[in-house]
Amino acid sequence: MSGFADYQPDVDRQSADATITVRPAELADLEACAGLIVSRTGGSVEARTHRLMADLREPERYAAVACAGDEVIGYGGVIHHEVSPGDPPDMAPTGYYLVGLIVAPDWRRHGIGELLTADRMRWTAERADSIYYFANLANGATLDLHHSLGFTEVTRDFTFPGDPLQPGTGVLLRADLTTGQ
């Protein structure tokens, strides 16, 4: 298990039969979000729900959900990372980072990841001129999505606190959020 969806670039995007809404996550959404996260990463839904609750209280973090009716079918977050004086020289730069994009398996290839990412970029654009994202080099689906939204490669030689990527397997990307772009 790779931890991310199989990439099928030649499969056409499906149209969603339901109206999809993207909005800021609310307390009532967190258990569903935790379930999506745990389905990909493992762990406890209860523990993940508690971590998401803390995120909702943090003003430098944002969580967005995609819903089909009342059902949460996607999740993505934004965090703010600060470089500290004791960090290694290859530490990823200070800034806002997209994290945790997950779409329920039955809803993949419907453009939901793009909707969630655009919403998180909009939120960040109200606070900063750029945004970062890092991913596994083997995750072609997310890399293509982010490239289509203006992300370009910064480096493959970086560290990030808590990042599970093994050295040499990740890429750090950045997008400008200025209005002229």
TrEMBL record:
Signal peptide: none annotated. It comes from Kribbella steppae. Keywords: Acyltransferase, Ribonucleoprotein, Ribosomal protein, Transferase. Residues 20-178 form the N-acetyltransferase domain. One of its GO terms (molecular function) is acyltransferase activity, transferring groups other than amino-acyl groups. Gene3D superfamilies: 3.40.630.30. Pfam families: Acetyltransf_1. It comes from the Bacteria. One of its GO terms (cellular component) is ribosome. This is Ribosomal protein S18 acetylase RimI-like enzyme. SUPFAM superfamilies: Acyl-CoA N-acyltransferases (Nat).
